[in-house]
């Protein structure tokens, strides 16, 4: 099955609620996709709630105009704001994470890579040590140890409800999500992320030299309209693709 595109709710600022809504769409309509942008903020996985002083830090950052939201997927802290494009895909697969985790990641990486190729940026998936929310299925630009992260990915899994469950009870829903640095300033977003990590005394620190924007990687001088161009290219790549497990 191909993807149906769902527009984001411009009044919804909490990404957790948006993720829940996308999963509900997947239950009722099949594979769905959403390309969206968020206001300046930080987003953390629920595992951060175990960190001492987390609520005080969240309140402090919110008071400074940078709310810190929770998300359902794992991983680490990610910045949001101008120049960052989110790609969210939600659909059902026949079995759970042990079987489908890698195909889901590879599909997400491939549709974004196809879109970036159309603007002259070649990427591949790999870990980039020192980048925020590092993982094996980052999209990276550049060779080997010199590669810099251009997109980060994450997943959230849950068992499908009984109304759409298969006889073997193994059907699952997956939310595959990526953030893509289109025209964001690596220094600014990492400074914001590092300030929050310092506020909660996590010991984590991110290196702005380990990430790159599409603007920088493409070598273009004028980034006017770049986000819309990239969004259209990725949307077209998703539209041509088939959701894994369908």
From TrEMBL:
Gene3D superfamilies: Bira Bifunctional Protein, Domain 2. Transmembrane segments: none annotated. Keywords: Plasmid. Pfam families: LplA-B_cat (PF21948). It comes from the Bacteria. SUPFAM superfamilies: Class II aaRS and biotin synthetases (SSF55681). This is BPL/LPL catalytic domain-containing protein. The lineage of its organism: Bacteria, Pseudomonadati, Pseudomonadota, Betaproteobacteria, Burkholderiales.
């Amino acid at each position: 099955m191909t993807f149906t595109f769902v527009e984001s709710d411009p009044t919804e600022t909490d990404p957790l609620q948006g993720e829940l809504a996308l999963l509900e769409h997947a239950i009722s309509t099949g594979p769905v996709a959403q390309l969206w942008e968020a206001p300046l903020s930080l987003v953390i996985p629920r595992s951060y709630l175990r960190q001492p002083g987390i609520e005080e830090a969240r309140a402090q950052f919110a008071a400074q105009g940078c709310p810190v939201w929770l998300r359902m997927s794992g991983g680490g802290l990610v910045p949001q704001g101008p120049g960052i494009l989110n790609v969210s895909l939600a659909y059902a697969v026949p079995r759970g994470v042990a079987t489908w985790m890698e195909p889901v990641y590879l599909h997400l990486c491939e549709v974004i890579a196809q879109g970036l190729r159309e603007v002259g940026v070649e990427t591949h998936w790999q870990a980039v040590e020192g980048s925020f929310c590092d993982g094996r299925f980052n999209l990276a630009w550049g060779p080997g140890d010199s590669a810099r992260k251009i997109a980060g990915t994450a997943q959230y899994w849950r068992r499908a409800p009984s109304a759409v469950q298969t006889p073997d009870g193994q059907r699952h829903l997956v939310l595959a999500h990526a953030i893509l640095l289109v025209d964001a300033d690596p220094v600014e977003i990492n400074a914001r992320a590092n300030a929050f990590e310092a506020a909660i005394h996590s010991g984590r620190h991110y290196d702005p030299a380990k990430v790159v924007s599409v603007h920088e990687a493409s070598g273009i001088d004028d980034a006017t309209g770049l986000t819309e161009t990239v969004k259209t290219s990725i949307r077209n790549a998703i539209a041509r693709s088939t959701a894994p497990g369908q």
